[in-house]
Structure formats: structure tokens, C-alpha cells
Hints:
Chain A is an all-beta fold. Chain A is 0% helix and 46% strand. The interface between A and B is medium-sized, with 24 and 23 residues.
Amino acid sequence: SYELTQPPSVSVSPGQTASITCSGDKLGNKYTCWYQQKPGQSPVLVIYQDYKRPSGIPERFSGSNSGNTATLTISGTQAMDEADYYCQAWDSSTVVFGGGTKLTVL
Amino acid sequence: EVQLVESGGGLVQPGGSLRLSCAASGFTFSDHYMDWVRQAPGKGLEWVGRTGNKANSYTTEYAASVKGRFTISRDDSKNSLYLQMNSLRTEDTAVYYCVRELATLSSWFDPWGQGTLVTVSS
């Protein structure tokens, strides 16, 4: 079965750039999306189709996908961005989620 | 406002059954494929399954972990999605989310409901 691998944790200082990776076999040939989940809340879509931002998502969130790795980048990270982040892709007609990355803003 | 509201969660014994519901509003429910995603306590997201719409004859797909035990259905006249869960196991304990697909291929999920907690325990 297809697997997506994320680092368990990433730390960043306020105002700096955070990068969260998601790796999978030939992932660049698939569309990837990203969800943000804060404690006690439901996930929220932040990036879809590799790099597109839904309305209401700040411009500091961006995405890319090439080769075997998709990347979520948060520029000028703010304390409010501290959350768990999950990547998601499709394998045939089933959905695969990455294991999630806890972003800590120190 | 697009909204998904899940209900029906609770405590059930191993081997038991439970039916979850999801009430949709603020969009044309019948147009969209719909999915269930779950999250065990302190764990990551796990896709449960999906149902298509009338155009694809309401085709369903399931994760291997629930196939043969869970059934997804919908009632477009009531703007509702359902998850019938049978032969429940302790490892099915999770918050279950109802989500809307926004594309017919390689879709993303938006929005997510608030979730309903299912606890399987004796």
C-alpha cells in the first residue's frame, strides 16, 4: 500500500520560515494537499492541488511538489501557526494521509 | 455557510454496531462525493471510505481496515450521509469526521465537520 512519510516534529522561531516535508514514491505525479489541525479542533484545508490556497488562508502558506517530496512552507511563521499538519494524496481510488507533523513555534 | 454536522457517536461494546449521521447544509449535497475520516485519540488521520454521487451510481470505496464491516450510504433528499459500523473493535475508537470532496479526481476535503466520538470498550 502507498505510504506518505512526514517528520514527527518541526521547530521554528517566530518570523522565520518553516518547511514541512511529505515523502512518497513518485509523489510528484500526484496532487498533494495539506491540512492544519489545532488542539481540540477539526482539520482545516490550507493547501490543495500542490500549491493552491483556499480563500481565507494567509499568503504565508505555500506548497510545492516534485519528485518524491511535497513541501508545505510557512513564511514569517506566527505563534498562531503552531499546530499539527497532515499531507494527503490519492492512491488509485483510496486516500492516504501522512502521519502528521507537529509544528512548534519557539 | 457550508456546514457538516455529525451525530450518533457514543460508547459501544466490542462486536456491537453503531450508525453515524452527517447533516449537510449550505451547498448542493447531491453534487458531491462524500467521505468519512477518523482520528484515534492522540493519533493521526485515517481515511475510512467514500461514496460517490448519483452520476457514478453512488459507488463506494473503503479502507482495508474497515472493509466488510462498515457501510457508507447517503440520502440526498435529506442532505445526509451515514456510516453504519458493525463488528466494532477497540481499535475503531476514534473521532469520526464527515468531509466533502471538491473535485471528481484527486480531491481535497473541505470543510470538515466537528466530529463525533465513538468509543468501543467493554
